[in-house]
Amino acid sequence: MRLSAFRLFAVCASLMASAAPAEEARPVVVELFTSQGCSSCPPADALLHELGQRDDVIALALHVDYWDYIGWKDSFAEARFTERQKGYATAAGRTSIYTPQMVVNGVHDVVGNRPKDVAKLIEKHRAKASPVTLDIAREGEMLRIAADTTRPVGPVHVYLVRYDPEESVRIKRGENAGKRLTYSYIVTDWDVVGIWDGTAPYLESVPLTGAEPAVVLVQQKGYGAVLAAARLR
Prior knowledge:
Blueprint: H1 5-18, E1 28-34, H2 42-51, E2 57-63, H3 79-91, E3 101-104, E4 108-111, H4 115-126, E5 132-139, E6 142-149, E7 156-170, E8 180-196, E9 202-207, E10 214-220, E11 226-232
Parallel strand pairs: 1-2
Antiparallel strand pairs: 1-3, 3-4, 5-6, 6-9, 7-8, 7-10, 10-11
């Protein structure tokens, strides 16, 4: 559904009023590739929980399915999350994937249970400005998305991500057998809602139902850099 002429004008006015003359900092997106069947993952899961409480970090847990073969099927795992991790590996010129892996702003990866290394990467990305501004707002059962840029950045994907804030799971088999583990920011949906040429302002409205938090990401195609992100809790 496209915005009405009145709403289009209102969004454009809002963007122009809030736009800065220079490139701006944006929340740092941390994607954790994890599994309930991985004994090295619980410390990374706990770290992601802490990171997600920061206003300057958007934390997302993507549970992969390639640990399921050892006897415990991850109840949150989806094959498409494994494919996303493989996409990052291919983009980086690697042939293997692992857990727990954190990918920061789509650009750098780090072992997710190494807090100091993760902190350094987040600070590195916090210091970087982005040419893209992003504004999102919920209007009933629709989500308004407005993006603009100070220079060409396209083409880019516009993603809508939904996540479950927290769940506790008792693991009965596999490497974490006998443990009750708590998981945070569990991604449940990850959909492309638009492709933007990265030049003219991007204005769109998409369906948004349910009470789950929502995140919009503007990411360069081919598993490139996350240029902007916004969250509705």
